[in-house]
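BUG: 3D viewer hangs when loading the predicted structure for this chain

Environment: internal workstation, default settings.
Expected: structure renders.
Actual: progress bar stalls at 90%.

Input used:
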Amino acid sequence: QYTPLAVSSPSATLANNAAMILSIAVSASLNVTAGSPPLELISFPEFALFGAQNQAPLCPASNATGKNALLGPYCETLPPVGTVVDCSAPDASSVPYKIIACGLMTSLNPQTKELLVSYNTCMNNNANSPAGSASYYNTQVIVGGGKIVAIYNKYHPFVTQCFDTPPLGLVTFNTLVSNVTFGVFTCFDIMFPSPKEDLVHLGVKYFSYSAAIPLVFKAAVELFSGMNNVTVAASNLNGEAVVVVDGKEAATSCPMSVGAEPCVAM
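Structure tokens produced before the viewer hung:
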């Protein structure tokens, strides 16, 4: 159950919600049933940093370009995948990906050093845009082990007056303990073949899925999972979360036997 909050300023909102994400992740890793493998992945819902409720004021319908200056202060500039996060930097306590990645590494709970956190953000892509223009992607970031593990830019943005359409990316990452490969896609992507079916064709059997769907979230996840015999760890902004295995909701996401399904939470 996670609800992002809007506070005094964009930077404070992002830092506050990143700290909440970190706190929930650390607590979840402590709450795994005794005898189970450590928690390896926790997925947070779409708009986990600034909240779906902020889209209307930040992305007015009159702006059809997808390059909205109001959204910019809520967007992160992300380093390349594989970057080791500098936790001694002055902004380590204010930049969302650093708050989460560094917090996992410095937590008193040693298990968080092997935990991956998947969270949704807005990525500032201005460095790759033409001079004088702005570009923002709806982006899923996976951090853990002190690094940027993966970055997926949502290929089918629903709020097109807010987010730009990126090149198609087939993004996977491996958990740090069991070395299980996960594919990534986000919300509206589930309605289209790419990238999810492309990843299935590459042999991916596990997926991290973040969404902000009001009605058909679980049904859509179950349909995709059942049709492709895959496991999906899914989190929705309304507080709904589910692990679906071969089209059926799993009794638990954290198996008792080492070497079985990876332990995940939403």
